[in-house]
Amino acid sequence: MTVLLRDDAEGIARAGSWLRAGRLVAFATETVYGLGADATNADAIARIYAAKGRPRFNPLICHFAEADGAFAHVRADARARALAAVFWPGPLTLVLPRREDSPIAALAAAGLPSLAVRVPAHGTARALLNAAGTPIAAPSANRSGHLSPTTAAHVMAGLAGRIDAVLESGPTSVGLESSILDLTTGDPTLLRPGGIPIEMLEELMGPIRRCDDTTAVIAPGMLRSHYAPRLPLRLEALAPDDSEAWLGFGTATVRGRLMINLSPRGSLIEAAAGLFEALHRIDTEAADLGLQGIAVAPIPRQGLGAAINDRLARAAAPRG
Ligand code: TXA
Ligand code: MG
User: Fold this and answer.
1) Cα–Cα distance, 17 to 78 (Å, whole number)
2) 3-class SS of residue 271
3) Can you tell me the distance from the alpha carbon of 221 to that of 201, in angstroms, rounded to the nearest whole number?
4) Residue with the nearest Cα to atom 7 of ligand 1?
5) Which atom of ligand 1 is nearest to the CA of 177?
6) Contact 3/164 with Cβ under 8 angstroms?
7) CB 244 within 8 A of CB 194
8) Phi, psi of 208 (to 5 degrees)
9) Residue of the nearest CA to atom 12 in ligand 1?
10) What are the pLDDT digits (tens) for 107-117?
């Protein structure tokens, strides 16, 4: 059974002690809801993979209340410390060489010599990290291959009965996962575009290499069809046809049977925050209406638009 816990002092204390006891608790971060487990407890980590139906080789992000806590487990160079000073707490994940003496379970990083670390900004996530008193490994709280959850209801729809609790906060504010930057080599590489636009990282770091789909799958979450609604997506559409729902952006007026606009005022921040919610809703409602697909308006590619287009391209990729 999955218990819904209130996002108050009592609920957070309970969630913290459950995590320490090796149980699985989903909680809000500013990006998406995460499925948390004690990162030092390999059994608990294994239950995350089982609950998600996630392939074992896919490593998890470890969450910390403070940068110092994170840097106790990885070797942070000057670049990592500069980024942390500016962007933590916040939607940036750094992949760094793991310290040999770190008690984090090898399974959390799927046996890799590196570790992905992040200090989330969400008040509940930080309170929970302090209550648990241990690093929390947390992938997005969805079944593997499904959409990332931005509300407690999304988490319940995918994982009820498979995890111990969901700490119920409101919808997440950023709405897309964190940006993942690999700093294990001299050549910083963006493994996943996300909540911090690459332009902002480059202002601090200089040029960053983009990891494209043709390279080896370093971040397995980058598998092409990772974000999969049930209905096929048609991108860069100018209007829906009779059999399609419409996912719009900006002011262009179109007619259709089911229409959701990510941001009528053309804000990429608003569109990012609502993207997964809109895909969840449109996928369910379009199928109920007998629609066959989802037409998606063109969305600008600068700033958060890079991450939004990345998620849409994955959602539209052939399944398999
Ligand atoms: O915003 C987020 O990052 C959310 C919240 C809950 O923090 N978490 C999240 O986790 O999106 P997940 O597991 O859905 O995606 C983590 C990604 C995966 O693509 C994984 O392959 C990559 O991070 N990753 C984790 N550890 C890695 C490592 N050591 N090296 C390379 N990639 C890694
Ligand atoms: Mg995920």
Assistant:
1) 35
2) helix
3) 21
4) 34
5) 1
6) yes
7) no
8) -120, 135
9) 139
10) 788 778 899 99
From the alpha carbon of 35, which atom of ligand 1 is closest?
6
In this structure, which residue's CA is closest to atom 18 in ligand 1?
A: 221
pLDDT in tens, 263-309: 999 998 888 877 877 888 898 899 899 999 999 999 999 888 887 89
Contact 246, 253 (CB under 8 A): no
30/118 Cα distance (integer angstroms): 12
pTM: 0.85
How far is 186 from 32, CA to CA, in rounded Å?
30
Architecture of domain 3-210: Alpha-Beta Complex (3.90)
- Domain locations in the chain as residue ranges: 3-210, 233-316
- With beta carbons less than 8 A apart as the criterion, state whether 175 and 276 touch: yes
* Ligand with the closest atom to the CA of 221: 1
Phi and psi for 162 in degrees, rounded to 5? -110, -15
Q: What whole-number distance in Å separates Cα of residue 238 and Cα of residue 252? A: 9
CA gap 91, 93 in Å, rounded: 7
**Nearest Cα residue to 70 out of 44, 98, 32, 91:** 98
Cα–Cα distance measured from residue 128 to residue 6, given in angstroms and rounded to the nearest whole number: 12
Q: Which amino acid is at 229?
A: P
Instruction: Quickly count: other Cβ atoms within 10 Å of residue 83's Cβ.
Output: 21
| DSSP structural state of residue 99 | P
